[in-house]
Each structure stands twice: as structure tokens, then as C-alpha cells.
């Protein structure tokens, strides 16, 4: 089987790994950037996705690349903690219910970890600075593409793992197949210098006019700010929409500076680092929902098919699990069977879980972006009460471990199960 994957982020390498090692598929992974991008904020892997990481033999490497975040704190404008949710309760062997996972990792580090796990595989070829320029044919027998370097090649399957605004999806699917759900929230991310006021907590600060500032540690001696805003009036909404769609970095930075000029806390210090931040990223928070995930021999995976938004904390787990399920269905094909059947089975198996994750309550993200000081006070009171409850050891013990708790029941794919057993044996032997 010859497979072309567009996108070397999270889903692409996970899929390539399983197809190569499972059925010796010849996999080409395209990445439009010149090299693997190091940018990206803190993400976590939890639930069944952790099982996939373990089966790939990458658990120890994941732990090694931990961001060092010790928990989540809600703070005042002077940095004083209002409510703290540590990952672990000090002096007690109990996991505390916390927005922070013990498996926090930077997105760029996770992408690099998956890349390193696949780059030396002779069945997998990475091509950087190359994209799919045009899908020429998508027939019963093959899919033919023209690449940006001029090559025209036929493959058995083309996988769109090229993100929320997938260009392959735009070429191969009808407009009515796509629904973009706008959550009326905008986020600016970047990396800033660390100073003496910073620590290893994920600090969240609320200010008026539906604004939020978040600061998260990384393992490189810097800090990862996130500024988010929910526009209130139609005029504000149009202003933020326009700047977001412009892809104009200078305009996006200018808007953030204007909006957060009176925000207080660490806003001034952090915004001084904006102009020189190499990894600045501005995002309109939207969900991607598709009526169908495949057409012929072309299939979407990860954010290209079902971006759930950062509000769910499940973007990365869905990308990992979706790639695994797609690989499982493709490796289950009998000789001579058309891959399009496997692509449909992947959707049938995984779509109900995706729909459940994407069913975000209507009060989110509004509840985390109060408009007034009164609203902020109520929110902080709620968090203070929850903190007092959850950090009691006898209460914390009643909660499941969380990250290792199975949230999606994987189908039994014989070839992938054999691969997992083989990887586990090899890893155990290496440790011995």
C-alpha cells in the first residue's frame, strides 16, 4: 500500500508509524514548512490516547519532555493565588483533580517526539517544503496528485492531516460537507522571557471585558503566555474577525496590545516581548465538523476532520486516536479490497466519540470570560470552594487517575495488537 499523508504534526506521524510497522506500507509525509515547527503551547495526552503512546514505546520519552507544570492557579492582579489545583497533593500519594495533566508537553516537543520515532523507518519518507498542489484523480483504482515540486504521483490513499483549514479538504469535499462552528473567542500565543515572578504553576488571571491571561511554564527557561478575548458587540466581533482572517501578524499584535493595554497583572511585561516573538500565533476558536470524513480514496484525520477547539483539551488525543483507528481499519483490509471501505469504517467507528467530545456546553467559553468585576468575583468564589473540596485527600482519592482512564474503547485490530506486543517486548528487553 502506498499512502500519502499531508501534514507532519501529530496525526500524520502516528498514522505513518502504524501503517509502516503494521503492513510495511510505503508512506510519504509532506510538510509545507522547511523544517518541523517548534511552536505550540502546552497540551496534554490523556485517556485511551495514552494507551496508544505506551504501545508505541514512547511513554518514557513523553515523561522526559514534561513541561514541569505542577498545577493550575487562579490569581489576582497582584499575582496572589485565589485557588490552587496541584497535580499531586504534597505529602500524600493521591492525584488531585486538576486542569493540569502529569503528561503535559509542548506541542512542538510532541511533534518532534513522533517525528524521531518515524524518521529512521525505511518505509517512511518525509518531504519538507512540499505540499499537494492539486488532486488530479480520485478514482476507484487510485488517487493521483501533483505536488508543489512538480511531481505527479499515484497513491492508494491520500490522507489530509493538514490542520483545521485543510487545503486538501477544500479541493476534495463539497462546501456543504463542512460546518465551522464559531465559538466567538480569539487567542494569541507566544513564548516570552521568564523572570523572577514566574513559577511552575499554570496561572490564570481574569480581568473585565471578557479577557483572560494565562501563563504556563516550559522546560526551556521561558514562559508561554496566552491572551484570550470574547468580543461583546457586533462591532467588536467584526473587528476581531477581520484581523483574524487577514493573517496580518502586525495587525494581530496591534489589536492584542490595544485590547489588553489596561488589563493589569503581567500584561505590560508580556506584551513587550510580542514584537520579537518568533512563534506568535493568533487563532479564532472554531470547531470543524464534517458530514463525511472521506470521499473515494481521500480521507481527513485530526483537526482537518474534527477540530474540537482548545476548549475541550482533546485536540491532541483525538488526533492520536483517529490516526490509530484509521491505521487499524487500513491494516485490516484483505488482499484486493478497496481502501475506501476501510475509510468509511474508520468514520463509523470513531465519529460517535468525536461527536461526544465536540458537544461543548453552551456556557463555554463564556463562563471563563466574565464581563464585569462582579462576574469575576463569583467565578473566583466558585473556584475557591472547589479548591477546598478537591484538595482534601479523602475527596481526591474518590477521583479516577484520569490520564490513564480509558475514555474510548478501541476496536481489536489484530495487526496493531501484534505490533504493540512486539514493541512492549522490545522496550522491556532494552530496559533489562
Computed structural class: alpha/beta
Strand content bin:
15-25%
- The value of Rg in angstroms is 22 Å
CATH topology of the largest domain: FAD/NAD(P)-binding domain
Kindly state the number of beta strands: 19
Instruction: Tell me the helix content.
Output: 25-40%
| Proper CATH architecture of the largest domain | 3-Layer(bba) Sandwich
Number of domains: 2
The CATH class name of the largest domain reads: Alpha Beta
What is the subunit organization of this protein?
Answer: single chain
Major beta-sheet overview = 8 strands, mixed
Instruction: Pick out the low-confidence regions.
Output: none
CATH superfamily of the largest domain: FAD/NAD(P)-binding domain
Mean pLDDT: 93
Number of helices: 14
Quote the distance from N terminus to C terminus. 36 Å
Query: How would you describe the shape?
Result: globular
Give a quick rundown of the structure.
With 432 residues, this protein is of the alpha/beta class. It has 2 domains: 1-66 and 109-182 and 287-366 and 417-432, FAD/NAD(P)-binding domain, CATH 3.50.50.60; 68-102 and 191-278 and 369-399, no CATH class.
Amino acid at each position: 500500500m502506498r499512502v500519502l499523508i499531508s501534514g507532519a504534526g501529530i496525526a500524520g506521524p502516528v498514522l505513518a508509524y502504524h501503517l509502516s510497522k503494521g503492513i510495511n506500507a510505503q508512506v510519504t509525509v509532506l510538510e509545507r514548512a522547511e523544517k518541523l515547527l517548534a511552536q505550540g503551547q502546552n497540551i496534554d495526552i490523556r485517556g485511551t490516547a495514552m494507551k496508544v503512546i505506551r504501545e508505541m514505546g514512547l511513554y518514557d520519552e513523553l515523561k522526559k519532555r514534561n513541561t514541569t507544570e505542577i498545577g493550575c492557579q487562579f490569581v489576582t492582579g497582584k499575582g496572589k493565588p485565589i485557588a490552587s489545583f496541584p497535580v499531586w497533593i504534597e505529602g500524600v500519594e493521591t492525584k488531585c483533580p486538576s486542569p493540569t495533566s502529569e503528561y503535559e508537553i509542548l506541542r512542538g516537543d510532541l511533534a518532534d517526539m513522533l517525528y524521531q520515532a518515524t524518521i529512521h523507518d525505511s518505509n517512511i519518507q518525509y518531504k519538507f517544503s512540499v505540499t499537494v498542489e492539486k488532486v488530479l484523480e480520485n478514482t476507484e483504482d487510485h488517487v493521483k496528485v501533483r505536488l508543489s515540486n512538480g511531481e505527479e504521483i499515484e497513491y492508494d490513499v491520500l490522507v489530509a492531516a493538514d490542520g483545521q483549514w485543510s487545503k486538501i479538504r477544500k479541493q476534495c469535499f463539497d462546501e456543504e460537507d463542512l460546518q465551522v462552528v464559531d465559538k466567538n473567542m480569539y487567542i494569541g500565543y507566544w513564548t516570552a522571557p521568564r523572570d523572577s515572578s514566574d513559577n511552575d504553576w499554570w496561572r490564570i488571571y481574569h480581568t473585565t471585558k471578557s479577557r483572560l491571561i494565562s501563563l504556563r511554564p516550559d522546560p526551556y527557561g521561558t514562559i508561554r503566555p496566552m491572551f484570550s478575548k470574547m468580543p461583546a458587540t457586533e462591532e467588536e466581533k467584526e473587528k476581531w474577525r477581520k484581523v483574524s482572517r487577514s493573517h496580518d501578524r502586525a495587525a494581530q499584535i496591534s489589536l492584542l496590545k490595544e485590547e489588553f493595554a489596561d488589563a493589569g497583572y503581567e500584561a505590560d511585561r508580556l506584551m513587550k516581548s510580542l514584537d520579537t516573538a518568533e512563534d506568535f500565533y493568533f487563532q479564532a476558536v472554531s470547531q470543524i465538523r464534517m458530514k463525511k470524513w472521506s470521499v473515494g480514496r481521500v480521507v481527513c484525520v485530526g483537526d482537518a476532520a474534527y477540530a474540537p477547539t482548545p476548549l475541550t483539551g482533546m485536540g491532541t488525543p483525538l488526533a492520536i486516536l483517529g490516526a490509530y483507528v484509521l491505521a487499524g481499519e487500513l491494516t485490516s483490509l484483505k488482499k484486493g479490497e478497496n481502501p475506501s471501505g476501510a475509510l468509511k469504517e474508520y468514520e463509523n467507528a470513531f465519529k460517535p466519540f468525536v461527536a461526544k467530545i465536540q458537544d461543548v456546553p453552551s456556557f463555554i467559553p463564556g463562563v471563563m470570560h466574565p464581563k464585569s468585576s462582579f462576574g469575576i468575583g463569583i467565578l473566583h468564589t466558585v473556584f475557591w470552594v472547589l479548591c477546598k473540596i478537591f484538595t482534601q485527600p479523602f475527596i481526591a482519592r474518590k477521583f479516577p487517575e484520569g490520564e490513564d482512564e480509558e475514555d474510548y474503547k478501541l476496536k481489536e485490530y489484530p495487526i496493531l495488537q501484534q505490533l504493540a506486543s512486539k514493541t512492549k517486548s522490545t522496550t522491556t528487553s532494552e530496559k533489562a
